[in-house]
Every structure is written in structure tokens, then in C-alpha cells.
């Protein structure tokens, strides 16, 4: 199909100008672009000079509505941010039936330095977990052996993200405009969300200062401590990550293992996200869990917007359900227990010990395997940049449009380059030399 005939339909995306700027770059390259507007935030982030369709029916009817829209406008590509929302799951089912290409963006494996770009599925639903470490070793180019050490200059701007969330919540509170699929008391839910969000932002500086004080006390106490890293749980519907209940279940398992295996003078430090709208409820629930396990005197809650490297370096073990947090720990070669269904868990980089045994005698990860995976990711699905900070957006949009217009997905392109590299090596090798062929039929 010629490139000018491609029609990109944007569904739910991140707050901010990412989808608008991406759509304009695709349009400048000859593609047709449209967006489905679910909320007033979608309408505010999408310019009036670009075509759009409003969806205000119950989500159960979205698949049929989208099917008719795809046929009417001859849509060839869908663009999503995350693949776990209900609307996006319907879109993935439709795309699989109708042969529509699905482009999925996300704050993925190496966040906040990179943005994940995959096709057809992301996280544990994607193709990454189907590759073996042996295949990754064949796929990574030799001259890229140090590429995994590269960290872009931009960092995700969590303050800007919080401001964008505040702006969008205020818009939804004051202007429903038929975009909200909720009851007649929708404004009560919006008012509560705005209040929780503003409280999180206004109290964040105080919480960070208190967190630094507690961190200094932990480091100066000289006591052995274990670290639990939790991120924001208020947007889990946008990512394939644990929601609040799942995060609490993970913490409860950690508390059970800690009480069974650790000495009374050891500490368990829990790192929280200060700008998370669910920070108050999550912190209260963790405190209640600690009291129920009779370890409240050993549990320390610390608010930190970014991972505190000195806390990781001085800890005995680290536990986290977050792939991005696990990446920070694995980069330092520190023992980490992560969610077994996450990418790092499925690829065997996290500890496979039960939590009690892990806390008692942790096994260190294989750093060679980690750096191999990181080089493979930066060669395929990871694009340098971020979804919110201006500098990160510029870096991302320098790479993303061409990747979306390419005929091959990132993994297939990597397999093809490896095949070409091996073919060149076999052609230049002396007679009788053997060469290996990469098993990549599953990608074709």
C-alpha cells in the first residue's frame, strides 16, 4: 500500500501535545490523520483544524462504533497510548480481525529516559517476551556493545505532568459537553478527583522534605534495611502495571516474608510517589498492613519523585512491581524481586526465590543478561525521549514518525538486519566455515 494512502486514527493518548505534534508530522509526510475524542481533555489537546470524531456512547458499544468508523474512513493504522484500557482492548481485537496495524506507545521498560514503541501489543502482551536471550545475543550488533550505557540528557518532567493533569481535571469539572460516560452525579466524582489531585501537589514539597529527613535517618542509623519501590497508582488504567489493590497485595506479601525471615532490628523502607493522587490512601493502607503484621516500628515510608540511588546502593534487597523501577536496580547489579508477570520477571532477570528466602539470602542478578536485554531494547522498541517534557518531546518526535511509517515493526527490522549481517559474514567467510541462522519465522 502506498505511503500516501495510510490513514492513522488516534485513540486515547497521554496528556499534553504529543498526539497533536505527532499527527502533524505524519500529515506532513503524506498520511491522513484523525482522532477519536472521548473526553474534554482529548478535545482540548487536539487542534480544531485536524479531523476528529466524538464518541459519547457506553464503552460496550465502542467496538461496533469503531468498526464502522474504520470502514467509513478506510483506516489503516490505529495509534494507542497503552493497551490495557477497555477501549484499546476492543480496538486490538478489531485490528486483529480486520488486518489494521496497531501502533502502541507507552512509558515502558526504560522509563523515564525512553518511550516504548511497539506494534500489536506491549509489555507482557508484546513480542519481547517471546525472544530468548540467545536470540538477543545474535541480534545485537557487535559495535553496539556499549549502547546500553547511553542515557539521554532529558528526564521526564513529573511536575509538568502533574500540571497537565490539573489542567485536564479542571476542564472536565467545568465542561462535560457530552464527552463523559458516567452517571448524572459525574461532577461529584470529578470534584473529588480534583481535590485529591490538588492535595497531592500542594503537599508534595512537604512530603519530599519529610522523605529526605527519613532517608537521612535510615542511612545514618547503620541498620540493615530492605527497600520496596512503588510508583504512582492513580494511572494504572493507562499501563500494564499493578493497580492500587495489586500494589497493596505485593506489599502484603513483602511484609509477610519480611516478618518471617528478617531480624527485629532490620528496617523495611517503602518508597512512594508524592504527586500520586492516591498517595494518602495508599500510605494509610500500608501503615494499617504494617500494624496488622506487627512490624510498624520497622516500616519507614519515604516520598520521592525519583529513585534515590543512594537508598538502592545501601539496601540489602529491593522489591518492586514496577518494570521501570526494576530497571534502575538491575542497572546497578543489585538483588531485586519483581512481579513474575512483568517483562523482567518473565525473562528471568528478577529473583525467582520466594520472598522470605530472597530477603534472607538474596541471589544477585546476572548483569551480563541485563545489559544484553538493555542493548536489545534500545536497538528495537525503546526510543529516546519522554511524553511530557519539551526537550524529551523533541527528541522523541525526531524518531517516532519515521518508525511508524516504516513497513517493518522494530523487532522485525532488527531480525532482518541481523540476517543481513550474518549473510555478509557467511559470504566473506572462508569455505567450510559454518554460520548460524537466527530463528525468526515467528515474526513473519
Using brief descriptors, characterize the structure shown:
7-stranded mixed β-sheet, 12% strand, disordered C terminus, 17 helices, 5-stranded parallel β-sheet, 444 residues, 46% helix
Strand numbers in spatial order across the main sheet: 3-2-1-4-5-6-12
**Percentage of residues assigned to helices:** 40-55%
Order of helices and strands: EHEHEHEHEEHHHEHEHEHEHEHHHEHHH
Shape, please? globular
User: What fraction of the residues are assigned to beta strands by DSSP?
Assistant: 5-15%
Description of the structure:
The protein is an alpha/beta fold. It has helices at residues 18-28, 40-45, 62-73, 86-98, 133-139, 158-174, 186-221, 244-261, 279-292, 309-314, 323-331, 343-346, 355-360, 367-379, 390-397, 400-405, 410-428; strands at residues 7-10, 32-37, 52-54, 77-81, 101-106, 114-119, 225-229, 267-272, 299-303, 318-320, 336-338, 382-384. Helix 11 links the parallel strand 10 (318-320) and strand 11. The protein has 17 helices and twelve strands. Mean pLDDT is 80; it is low at 145-156, 236-242 and 432-444. Helix content is 46%, strand content 12%. Helix 8 packs parallel to helix 9. The strands form two sheets. The protein has a seven-stranded mixed beta sheet, sandwiched between helices.
What's the layout of helices and strands?
Layout: E1 7-10, H1 18-28, E2 32-37, H2 40-45, E3 52-54, H3 62-73, E4 77-81, H4 86-98, E5 101-106, E6 114-119, H5 133-139, H6 158-174, H7 186-221, E7 225-229, H8 244-261, E8 267-272, H9 279-292, E9 299-303, H10 309-314, E10 318-320, H11 323-331, E11 336-338, H12 343-346, H13 355-360, H14 367-379, E12 382-384, H15 390-397, H16 400-405, H17 410-428
Parallel strand pairs: 1-2, 1-4, 2-3, 4-5, 7-8, 7-10, 8-9, 10-11
Antiparallel strand pairs: 5-6, 6-12
Helix pairs in contact: 3-4, 5-14, 6-7, 8-9
Amino acid at each position: 500500500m502506498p505511503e500516501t494512502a495510510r490513514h492513522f486514527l488516534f485513540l486515547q493518548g497521554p496528556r499534553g501535545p504529543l498526539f497533536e505534534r505527532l499527527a502533524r508530522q505524519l500529515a506532513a509526510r503524506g498520511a491522513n490523520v484523525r482522532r477519536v475524542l472521548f473526553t474534554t481533555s482529548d478535545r482540548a489537546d487536539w487542534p480544531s483544524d485536524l479531523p476528529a470524531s466524538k464518541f459519547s456512547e457506553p464503552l460496550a458499544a465502542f467496538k461496533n462504533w469503531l468498526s464502522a468508523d474504520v470502514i467509513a474512513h478506510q483506516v489503516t493504522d490505529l495509534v494507542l497510548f497503552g493497551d490495557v484500557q477497555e477501549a484499546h482492548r476492543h480496538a486490538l481485537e478489531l485490528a486483529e480481525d480486520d488486518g489494521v496495524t496497531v501502533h502502541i506507545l507507552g512509558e515502558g521498560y526504560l522509563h523515564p529516559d525512553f518511550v516504548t514503541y511497539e506494534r500489536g501489543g506491549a509489555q507482557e502482551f508484546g513480542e519481547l517476551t517471546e525472544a530468548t536471550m540467545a536470540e538477543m545475543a545474535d541480534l545485537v550488533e557487535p559495535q553496539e556493545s556499549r549502547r546500553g550505557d547511553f542515557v539521554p540528557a532529558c528526564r521526564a518532567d513529573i511536575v509538568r505532568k502533574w500540571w497537565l493533569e490539573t489542567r485536564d481535571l479542571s476542564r472536565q469539572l467545568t465542561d462535560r459537553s457530552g464527552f463523559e460516560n458516567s452517571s448524572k452525579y459525574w461532577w461529584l466524582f470529578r470534584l473529588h478527583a480534583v481535590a485529591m489531585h490538588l492535595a497531592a501537589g500542594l503537599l508534595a514539597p512537604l512530603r519530599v522534605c519529610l522523605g529526605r529527613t527519613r532517608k537521612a535517618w535510615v542511612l545514618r542509623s547503620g541498620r540493615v534495611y530492605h527497600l520496596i519501590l512503588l510508583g504512582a497508582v492513580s494511572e494504572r488504567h493507562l499501563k500494564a502495571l499493578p493497580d492500587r489493590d495489586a500494589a497493596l497485595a505485593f506489599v502484603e506479601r513483602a511484609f509477610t516474608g519480611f516478618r518471617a525471615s528478617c531480624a527485629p532490628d532490620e528496617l523495611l523502607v517503602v518508597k512512594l510517589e508524592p504527586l500520586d493522587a492516591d498517595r494518602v490512601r495508599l500510605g494509610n493502607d500500608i501503615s494499617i498492613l504494617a500494624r496488622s503484621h506487627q512490624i510498624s516500628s520497622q516500616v519507614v515510608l519515604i516520598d520521592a519523585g525519583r529513585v534515590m540511588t543512594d537508598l538502592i546502593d545501601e539496601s540489602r534487597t529491593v522489591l518492586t512491581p514496577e518494570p521501570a523501577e526494576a530497571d534502575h536496580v538491575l542497572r546497578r547489579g543489585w538483588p531485586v524481586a519483581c512481579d513474575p508477570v512483568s517483562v523482567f520477571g518473565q525473562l528471568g532477570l528478577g529473583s525467582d526465590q520466594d520472598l522470605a528466602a530472597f530477603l534472607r539470602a538474596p541471589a544477585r542478578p546476572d548483569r551480563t543478561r541485563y545489559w544484553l536485554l538493555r542493548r536489545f531494547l534500545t536497538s528495537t522498541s525503546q526510543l529516546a525521549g519522554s511524553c511530557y517534557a519539551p526537550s524529551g518531546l523533541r527528541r522523541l518526535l525526531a524518531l517516532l514518525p519515521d518508525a511508524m511509517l516504516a513497513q517493518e515493526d522494530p523487532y522485525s527490522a532488527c531480525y532482518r538486519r541481523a540476517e543481513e549481517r550474518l549473510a555478509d559474514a557467511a559470504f566473506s567467510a572462508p569455505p567450510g566455515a559454518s554460520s548460524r541462522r537466527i530463528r525468526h519465522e515467528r515474526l513473519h
